[in-house]
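Summarise what follows for lecture notes:
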Amino acid sequence: QVQLVESGGGLVQAGGSLRLSCAASGRTVSNYAMGWFRQAPGKEREFVAAISASGGNTYYADSVKGRFTISRDNAKNTVYLRMNSLQPEDTAVYYCAVDSVSDYGPLRGAGRIASYVYWGQGTQVTVSS
């Protein structure tokens, strides 16, 4: 069993930055890809970014490409999401998750919510205009 705890959310003005952290405990997650998702009020949960087990490959939703950066520190069992140039439409609860594979490819995309095995409780990000 893996427990995930997100932190780093908060209230920020448009154009600002935040860095989210997701600390895993219970077992090492260094062999598994991890992802960030978000869910805004009244909307479905959506894929934001993912990173392979080694950290060598990263994947982003088009809406955040160039603004967000996902990274991981396997020694700390932690994944991060650096968010720059935040906009009001980025307001959501952000969740991290652990997949059951180490990386993605043509047959296994990074954004498939049902594929992720463990989820955190989420951290609120609010961007004011």
